[in-house]
Amino acid sequence: MDDRVEVRAGDVLLFRGGGFVSWAIRAFDGTDVNHAAIALDSTTLGEAGGRGLQRTLIETATKSNRYMRVRRHTDPDPGPVLTVASTYLDEGRPYAYQQIVLLALLASTRRLRLTGIARRMLRSVLDHGAAALNAFVDRGGARSMICSEFVYRVYAEAVADPADRYRLLIPVGDTAFDAEATSLAEWALVQPDDVLESAAAEPVSFGAPSAGDPALADERAELELAPILAAWAVESGRAGGEDMPPLPPPSFSPDVGAGPTDEELVGSLVGFGAALADATSDGPPAFGLSAATVGPAAARGLITGLLRPAIEANFVTPGDLLASPTLIDVGTVRRG
Fold this sequence. Notes:
This protein is an alpha+beta fold. It has one domain. Helices cover 42% and strands 12% of the residues. The strands form 2 sheets. Strands 4-3-2-1-5-8 form a 6-stranded antiparallel β-sheet. The chain has a two-stranded antiparallel sheet with strand order 6-7. Strand 2 and strand 3 form a beta hairpin. The longest helix is centred in the middle third of the chain and has 21 residues. It is globular, with a radius of gyration of 19 Å.
């Protein structure tokens, strides 16, 4: 830990990781961070991690990331917030954060050009995201929670009053990734009915969920997505710079083929939307492990659900927490 930055209980901790999935999250969201946690004291944090809600040493988390941004709520008493955080953590609920789920959500809603390798990359990201979500639903209805949702919720639920002083304000602005492009969800909604119907009628292949440790889903996604994310970075002119992981060797050639058809791409989007709806619902799964039974009307509803304009806990990103005017910057702790 950098002794020059004092971490206090209740601080929001935002991390910049070093892998391709972490890089892609930042690229899609137009931000500097890709993971969020809350400080429980000066040495321990609470986070939604690969194995569920967990406590981790801040020093350990810092060493496994490039750096940690420390932001502090303007209210000096974090007591009610820490009570909520401890309740979640002590209950041992099987919530889990998957970087790939956050990446798939951003890939669905941020604007980018749907050409060449981008289409192949998007389908792969969505299928991995759906597989990670379904792995938890298949284990008995466990509800998935992304890292920034956990941080946002512990502040929002600190007191019952919805206008309470703890709620983190999230600026609502243009989330365009490419102002001249469109988001995948927006593109899918204007596709002809026959494309949507064909996409909804075909079974979606989510891949094989992790049979063991849930944290392995992110590790597997990192290995499988790194080549296609690197190829997309080159194609889109975003390769290079110290923020990006090293590119594969020159002999690297991703298996992009002809790219997915419109029906396949929409099908993967519907499949991810169905998995997300099941994994973020407090009730039993409504769609199961396949989007094959989702009709065109329901498919449109699932896609529209990915474009919710209101600030909801499920859709708050680490970048949103970095931009929140309720939090003030304290400092940055870099990996030693």
